[in-house]
Amino acid sequence: MCGIVAYIGQQEAYPILIKGLRRLEYRGYDSAGVAMMNGKLNVYKKKGKVDELVNFAENQDKTGTIGIAHTRWATHGEPNDKNAHPHAAEGEKLTIVHNGIIENYEVLKKALLKQGHIFKSDTDTEVLAHLIGEIKEREQLPIEEAVRLALNKVIGAYAIVVLDSDEPDKLVAARKSSPLVLGIGENEFFLASDASPIVEYTKKVVYINDEEIVVATKDGNFNLRNLRNEETEPRFHYLDMQIEMLEKEGYDYFMLKEIFQQPRSVADCMRGRLNAEKNWILLNDVENNLEKFLHANRIIFIGCGTSWHAGLVAEYLFEDIARIPVEVEYASEFRYRNPVIREGDIVIPISQSGETADTLAAIELAKQKGAFVYGVVNVVGSSIARTAHAGSYIHAGPEIGVASTKAFTGQLTLLTMMALYLGHRKGTISNDHYHRLLVEFSKIPDKIRQVLDYDKEIQAIAQQVRNAQNALYLGRGYNFPVALEGALKLKEISYIHAEGYPAAEMKHGPIALIDALMPVIVIATNKSAYEKIVSNIQEVKARRGVVIAIVTEGDQQIRRMADFVIEIPEVEEIFAPLISAVPLQLLAYHIAVMRGCNVDQLVI
Ligand code: F6R
Questions:
Q1: Mean of the per-residue pLDDT values for the chain?
Q2: I want to staple 303 with a disulfide (CB 3.0 to 4.6 A). Which of 36, 269, 287, 307 is the partner?
Q3: Nearest C-alpha to atom 3 of ligand 1 is from which residue?
């Protein structure tokens, strides 16, 4: 979760670095630091927010047109000033910022200690700094060569930028399994862990590949080499991102903005791919690989957190509509098992960021075992998008709040299109049924808009339950993964313990927890299992639980039983998650804000 920004060019670096750190602060951090070069290297770092770093550096020398900066989320060593980045070595001549984890740092550190190195922090990053410094001094090498040799000794993940006062007109950066983007301006370069600190200066970027080292110099040149020291060709991309996308645009939090963006982001995902009137869906890469999909023995969805929940919804969709057997796996479990992958298996990783390390590792494993990998990703140009054999973007735009909202509905939209398209091509749904579903599906953005109109009512319910310590979310069928997602949203941003369950499972254990202090959020829009959901609500009421029911507009029966009711428009059951997820996002948001939580960030 750490963030990197670096600059080399003709402008003063410090304001660019600080602005960049602020753009990255949405992901949460525990400390921040900067290093600027102006004849000598000035390094300032501080525990806490970027503001604390700014106050600390206020009366210090911050001049220089080359610099590196970092926001840290502690992995090795507690969050404090000394563990903050940048880390120095070689008598403070060389500094480095790093995202990722150096897995063999203890072995490397032992060897360096024997050689007389003294460490000031508890971090793996400082070990890497010393390793680079040691190789550079001992072999008398240019800094990029020392970085290359050092990285050949490293096991783990990294995105690094190195600033060396012996070569003050140069930045050296590299990555493996941790994202890094090079922004190319007029005689200036930007490096960052995502494009958000770069986009206001230039749209021209190169996404650095795994095991690539970039050297950017003040005279406006850059080159790329791999760890074997072979030159590699840069592939230029142009960012399709406006700076307003990175602003709150009047909303109190990014999360709220992103919830309210969903009618548009879902429509954007459909744009050019769905035409209900003319009865078609077109997804280029599905079309290009149609034979593989039509003859797939099995589809395995992999992901983490919310993206895994989207995979669970996809299981219902693909089995129901396209009659393809599906499995859904946590990427973190899949990668450490020895999964059976057979010919004809398709692996579909789902990811908002396209950078989640477990998902990336699971893809590598799937590829090694011969699977065809089709990525469903939001961030354009991200590692997963580039690693998969083919795929589709969800086009939700930058998701800045830490809780995934519009990415979830974007993932559901894309996966629904895939399932419908494949069902139609396979003949597992009739043409008439397909047409009716497409017409219904194209109305989803408007129906999400209608749900958002209930925001005030949802806020009033949040007020009633904001002091709860536990909450239970129940759903059946297509709404079961939504129950899991609702619970995840609540615990992630409000720090209330919450669990999601298939409603029928409640009686097999969790029912024991229900009492008058327990809000039970029941997603009760299913037509097919309506009576069963009604009896689940009765069971909760019999134990005096507080029922918040998400019901279809006009539902009187559940209204009479539940303590609170949120109405949502009627939709075909297969589209229910796209609608029922939205009130749960708003409920979690309002509860968290009422509890004084910063919903956009991880807690420090
Ligand atoms: C929850 C959330 C996380 C992510 C998970 C996967 O609101 O944001 O659970 O869904 O970390 O991230 P991506 O989708 O970027 O792979």
A1: 94
A2: 307
A3: 305
Q: How far apart are CA 406 and CA 309, in angstroms?
A: 14
> Is the CB of 359 inside a 6 Å radius of any atom of ligand 1?
yes
Those residues whose C-beta lies under 8 Å from the C-beta of residue 509, and which sit 6 or more positions away, are none
Homologous superfamily of 452-604: Glucose-6-phosphate isomerase like protein; domain 1 (3.40.50.10490)
Could you report the per-residue pLDDT of 443-463, keeping only the tens digit for each?
999 999 999 999 999 999 999
CATH 3.60.20.10 given to domain 3-244: yes
- Measured distance CA(55)–CA(46) in Å, rounded: 10
Determine whether the shortest distance from the Cβ of 405 to ligand 1 is under 6 A. Answer: no
In the reported structure, the alpha carbon of residue 23 is separated from the centroid of ligand 1 by a whole-number distance in angstroms of: 19
Burial of 428 (0-12, 13-18, 19+ CB in 10 A): middle
Residues spanned by CATH 3.40.50.10490 within the chain? 248-442, 452-604
What is the full DSSP assignment across 100-168? S-BTTHHHHHHHHHHTT---SSS-HHHHHHHHHHHHHHHHT--HHHHHHHHHHT--B-EEEEEEETTST
DSSP assignment, residue 244?
G
The whole-number pLDDT of residue 603 equals: 52
Query: Collapsing DSSP states into helix, strand and coil, what is residue 254?
Result: helix
CATH superfamily of 248-442: Glucose-6-phosphate isomerase like protein; domain 1 (3.40.50.10490)
Atom number in ligand 1 closest to CA 408: 10
Q: What is the CA(485)–ligand 1 centre distance, in A?
A: 11
Using CA atoms in the order 9, 14, 16, 17, what is the torsion angle rounded to 10 degrees? 110
- In this prediction, residue 74 carries a pLDDT of 74
**Residues 489-530: pLDDT tens digits?**
999 999 999 999 999 999 899 899 999 999 999 999 988 889
Residue with the nearest Cα to atom 9 of ligand 1?
A: 305
Query: 353 C-alpha vs ligand 1 centroid, how far in Å?
Result: 8
Answer yes or no: pTM beyond 0.70.
yes
Atom number, ligand 1, closest to the C-alpha of residue 304: 6
Q: How confident is the model at residue 604 (pLDDT cuts 50, 70, 90)?
A: very low
Give residue-wise pLDDT tens across range 59-106: 999 999 999 999 987 767 788 889 899 999 988 899 999 998 899 999
